[in-house]
Amino acid sequence: MEAQVARLLDTVAARDAEILKLQARIAELEGVEAENVTLRARVAELEAQLGRNSTNSHKPPSSDPPGTRPPKPPTGRKRGAQRGHAPHKRILVPPEHVTRTTKVVPEHCACCGSERVRPTQDSPRVHQVVEVPEIRPDVHEIQRHAAECLDCGKVTWAPLPDGVPAHMFGPRLLALITYLVAGRMSRRQVCLLLAEVLGIHISLGALSEAEARASDAIAAPVEEAVAYAQAQPVKNVDASTWRRESVYAALWTIATPLVVVYFITKDACGATIAALLGTLRGTLITDRGSQFGFWAMKDRQICWAHLIRKFVAFSERKDDGARIGDGLLLLAQATLAAWHKVRDGTLSRTQFEGIARRAHAAMEVLLARGVDLRLKGLSRSCQNILAHKEALFTFAFTPGVEPTNNHAERALRAFVLWRKVSFGSQSERGCLFAQRAMTVMQTLRLQGRSVLRFLTDACQARIAGAPAPSLLPSTR
User: Fold this and answer.
1) Strand-pair partners of 235
2) What is the pTM of this model?
């Protein structure tokens, strides 16, 4: 009996030990399972980051890997001009701009070779050859002579004539240097071009001096343009990065239909842009950046290009958020398609306002559902968009307001390309030159005016002490 009890106790002890082992194994597996859930979430997050491109995030198209955008299906048409297209012929130079003319009369018949020919009344066939002449710089040498006073013996040197600058740069040369640098040519390349093409040899230090003088010449027109942009009823605002002495700074633009101004600031916070805007009147078209929170929501328009990229990212999810994204994307595409009909005149503004109200209500429902799903990477974004609901459809009810901020983004693109070439500025003077030169160049291009002529006139006015020309469209 005792032996049986002993064996039973041994069996119970062995089973207890086995239970303990199983419990330890269960606890280990629970830890592994929890770790597995964490790792799966991390993998999903990394896959989402890997799948980001210009269609579903803020990344530029230049960063897209090959195959991001599917190739367009073949149209079946041959390359080149299509049948019935409007011809594009070379435009002849007007007669008043022709520098020399050669008249050629046939001396014999091209058919039989006979020399018995006579002129006809037909108009001549004009062939023009355009050539660039050898460029020689116009060097004006001023010889300042000295005179000795017979009374006190002091030597006096003759002053420079009126209209002659105290430096080596004429107004057109200053304008050309500004045009080339603001056109994204590196400063060393500008020096090489001036030497090889124009025969003007200057150092990098002299080039920097020329930039400073040109910057002073266009300061007043740029300040006038800034005041004009601040006072406009509709303003597109966007920002990018800049570098000053290898430290990141902020590059801002305020873009209106005919005037674009730029600012380089130390940061991109709300107080900075509020100071740049000057007044809180009008409608502001921006993204959903928190730095714009000082502007009344009812007077804002959120960029729909940013929203669509966010909706695309939602639709590419592998959970319930994909249905939210599909619905939002369909609403956005339908709304913008109707807006395009308003712009081309096939849909009335009143009809579109009704469409916008229905789309707005449907969008709020879908965003609220997205918030309720409590999904990482979706719900908080939906909540943020809902917080901007007053600024989603401003374009539908306020004339002159566009649904996207593309105007400001296009205005920034040229400046960003300059940053990639120059790596930013090394001083406050360099920042001022950059923002002023780009303000002049982009504004004049919007207005269809000559940049080089304006820069030349501004530099000439600076040398003569006269008022500078204006950048404003009303004073053209």
Assistant:
1) 284
2) 0.81
